[in-house]
Amino acid sequence: MPHFDGGEIAQFVTFRVADGLRREPLSDPRLAKLVEGALLHFDGERYRLHAWMIMPNHVHVLLTPRLGNHVSDIVHSWKSFTSKRANRILGKSGKFWQEDYFDRYIRNQPHFDTTLEYINQNPVKAGLCCTPQDWPFRGTATPEPPNNPGPSITPGGPRASRLQSDDVADLRKEYIRGGLKEDDAHPDPIEQFRKWFEEALAANLHEPNAMTLATVSSGGRPSARVVLLKGFDERGFVFYTNHEGRKGRELEENPYCALVFYWGELERQVRVEGRASRVSAEESDEYYRSRPRGSRLSAWASEQSRPVAGRNTLEERLRGLEDEYEGREVPRPPFWGGYRVEPEAIEFWQGRENRLHDRLLYRCSSGVGWSMERLQP
Ligand SMILES: Cc1cc2nc3c(=O)[nH]c(=O)nc-3n(C[C@H](O)[C@H](O)[C@H](O)COP(=O)(O)O)c2cc1C
Q: Which of 113, 246, 271, 272 has the most CB atoms lying inside 10 A of its own CB?
C-alpha cells in the first residue's frame, strides 16, 4: 500500500492499443501475458505495482513510481518492451499501442480504494465476466501480513490459501520472451553462457548463480541439490563445498555430473554435463579467504551431510571455533574446497510459444572442439 505522506505518489495509469488493430487483441492470452510480464518486469525496480487489469483493448495500472522515475518513461518502457513481440505474435508490423496515455495522481487512501475498485470492476462493467475474480488478466497487491517477507503481488488476484492438486496441474505459462536462433548463438558455448549469465544479472534475478548439481553414486543412484556458481571460464564451472559431504564423496567416486541453471523470469534453462575435478589448493585458498569470517568458521564446524543431535551442537561448535581462532586467521579446512565441472555438453533452452521451445545443444569432441545442433523441444 502506498504511504500518502511520503515523497512517492501513487498514480492510476491507462494506456490503449492502437486504433485500427484487430479487435480486442489483448483478449489473446499470449498478448495479455506479454503485457503482464512487462508490468511485473519493472516492479520493485522502477515502481511498486498495486494492481493491474488487462482489458481487451486497454490496460489499467495502479502503481507508485519510485523517486526519480516518471510515469511517462515507465509507460514508454512497457510499450517498447511489448510492441515488437506483440506484433510478432500477431504477424504484423506497425504501431501496437496508441501514443498517448492517461494518468491521474491518487490523493489519499479513500481515492486509492475507489480507484482499486474501479479497476477491479472494469471487466464486470464491460459485461466480460460476473466477478472480478473471473477475469484472468489482472493482479492485485495483497496486503503483507506482519513479519511475512513473502511476495506481495499475486497475478490473477489473491489465491485460495490451500493449494489443491489441480492447482498444480493448472500452473501453466505461455513463454513469450523471444527465441534463440542458431545465427544469434555464439559458436563458443562459454561465451553464449556469459551472455545469458550477464542478462540474468542485469534482470536482477534472485541468485542467478544458483544451479542444481546432480551427482551419481558408485551404485548408480543419482542425487541433486543446489550450489552456487563461483566462477566460470573456458575450463569450466566452479563451485565450493565440503569434499566429505554426500556430493563430495559421490564426485570422488564418480566425477560425471550435471548442472542446471533455471532463470524463470527469462524463460531460460542451461544444462551442463561433464566431469568434476578439484580446483587447485591455491584457487580454493583464494576463494576461502574472500568469504566472511563466519562462513569460514562454519566450514570447520559442519561435517556436511552427517546427522547431528541438534542445532545446539553446531552452534556450540561454532562458539568454540570463534574462541579458538580469536585474533587469528582462519585457515581453509583440508576437507573443503572447489570443484570445476569441465563441460562436455551444454544446452541452452529458451521457452517459446505453444511449448515449441528452442533448444541448442553444444557438444565438445576432442581435437575438433565445439559443435552445435538444434534439438526438438
Ligand atoms: C541457494 C542455495 C545455495 C547453496 N549453495 C551451496 C554451495 O555453494 N555449496 C554447498 O556445499 N552447499 C550449498 N547449498 C546447500 C546444498 O544444496 C546442500 O544442502 C548441501 O551442500 C549438502 O548437500 P549433499 O549432502 O548432497 O552434499 C546451497 C543451497 C541453496 C538452497
A: 272
Is 359 assigned a catalytic role? no
CA distances from 102 to 42, 93, 224, 230 (A): 19, 24, 50, 46
Query: What tens digit of pLDDT does each residue of 133-182 get?
Result: 889 899 886 543 333 333 344 454 433 345 555 556 666 666 666 789 99
Q: Which fold has domain 11-170?
A: Alpha-Beta Plaits (3.30.70)
- Residue 371, Cβ density class (10 Å: 0-12 exposed, 13-18 middle, ≥19 buried): exposed
- Ligand 1-lining residues (CB < 6 angstroms): 207, 210, 223, 225-228, 239-241, 245-247, 304-305
Domain ranges of the chain: 11-170, 189-374
Given a contact cutoff of 8 angstroms between Cβ atoms, the answer to whether 62 and 50 are in contact is: yes
The topology (CATH level 3) of 189-374 is: Pnp Oxidase; Chain A (2.30.110)
The grid cell for 256 is 560425471
Concatenate the DSSP letters of all residues of 10-78 into one string: -EEEEEEEPTTSSS-GGGSHHHHHHHHHHHHHTBTTTEEEEEEEE-SSEEEEEEEEPTT--HHHHHHHH
The letter for the amino acid at 137 is: F
CB 232 within 8 A of CB 238: yes
Q: Which residue has the higher pLDDT, 102 or 68?
A: 102
Host H or E run for residue 135:
none
